[in-house]
Specification:
alpha+beta; Ribosomal Protein L22, Chain A; 136 residues; 29% strand; 4 helices; three-stranded antiparallel beta sheet
């Protein structure tokens, strides 16, 4: 690895150490359905978002709720203080496509229809409200 590449990798690593985030990988639901849930809680205060996710009828809300609890716990661990109501908000939530499983379903006249079982990766980042005055 070259010197310039090593230095830029070190800068990225230091920047990542300052952020409090959680990552969910290979969740077996389609990215489109997960993005509906992600859009519902983006930019919202974390405890309000937990309430929204807990009482949502969407199937994808349960894994995102668990991920949000993990991100809050990560923030508490890094900052050494307890998260209280009105302190944190969801700065960024990103849903990316993961590798899909390709299957064949038998169809009439000897054909086979392809089934694509999609999955996704979710990245959620939380941040203190006071540090960013232009929250909304």
């Amino acid at each position: 690895m070259g010197k310039r590449k090593r230095e830029s990798a070190k800068k990225l690593q230091e920047a990542r150490a300052m952020k409090s985030y959680a990552v969910l990988r290979n969740e077996p639901s389609s990215p489109r359905k997960m993005r509906l849930v992600a859009d519902m809680v983006r930019g919202v205060e974390v405890f309000k978002a937990l309430g929204l996710l807990h009482f949502s009828s969407k199937h994808a809300a349960k894994p995102v709720e668990k991920l949000l609890k993990s991100a809050i716990s990560n923030w508490e661990q890094k900052n050494g203080e307890k998260a209280e109501s009105g302190v944190l908000y969801i700065k960024e939530i990103k849903v990316d496509a993961a590798p899909m499983l390709k299957r064949l379903r038998p169809a009439p006249q000897g054909r086979g229809y392809r089934i694509r079982k999609r999955s996704n990766h979710v990245t959620l980042q939380v941040e203190r409200i006071e540090s960013n005055a232009n929250n909304e």
